[in-house]
Amino acid sequence: MEAASLPDPGLTVAGDTGLRAGLGLGTARLGAFWQGKGVREGARALDAAFDLGVTVVDTADVYARGISERLVGRALRRHEGVTVITKGGLLKTPAALAQAARSGAGRPSAGGLRAAAPAGRCFRPDYLRWAVQGSLRRLGLDSLPVYLLHEPDLATVRDPEVVAGMERLREEGAVGAWGVSTPEDDVALAAMDLPGTPWIEALVGPGNDSLAEKLTVHPRRRESVLVGIGALGDGGQVARRAAVGRMGPAEAVASLAAEAVDRAAPDLLLLGMSTPEHVRRNVARLMATPEPAGQDKKETAG
What we know:
alpha/beta, TIM Barrel, 11 helices, 13 strands, Aldo/keto reductase, NAD(P)_OxRdtase_dom_sf, NADP_OxRdtase_dom, AKR2_Oxidoreductase
């Protein structure tokens, strides 16, 4: 595929220093009805975000056991100009476990079949090809704009067989750009050295100042796309910020998001919003600061 530019994020999040990052919608809990997140509510949340101008959405094959990807795929039929980031490699379904075993991964951990249990992983090329095909089918796409290895370890990121397998998928057009999504500092830094223009989802929330600084000064920073995750910290950060700052939840979200932008200067910032009410309230508050004219674009691997 030809090189593709960093997608126009549609909406941006402002830091207090004047830095800006594109706003992307995270969908980790979208459609997880066993957690009280209804499928219809998830569909309305996507529509609300896209109607308001969000043009980047992040999902994964394990989110709600594939329901999230299906919801995103249906929403894409109603909305044009949306860039999808999806991920694979975690094993949370019987089909994934069986495919991992067929791909030569031995007997991977079945822990991911249980709620809140650590999932096994498989990043062997045959497995990733199977996973990519599944995501294409659920999303209703011919090519995945961005595909990320979901929480690989350091050895996986440096494995030439894994890299070669992903490069083949990119050259064939099954994926546009690729990279990693990780909560680990060393993995995020190592991913900067992947070929082309790697996409890296890394933690940019409270307590991640050291990683943010290392990523910012990395020699290949301008050749990568940094997607900030975890901007709101743990589940209690929003409530704590609201209490300390005597502000509402939306104001607390905006405050934490602005700090994340200033901390790490990401190209995109993902915020998870699983109900239409949360989407409208948070986006309205985030967009309270006027947008500057024009946004710089970056070339990405494609």
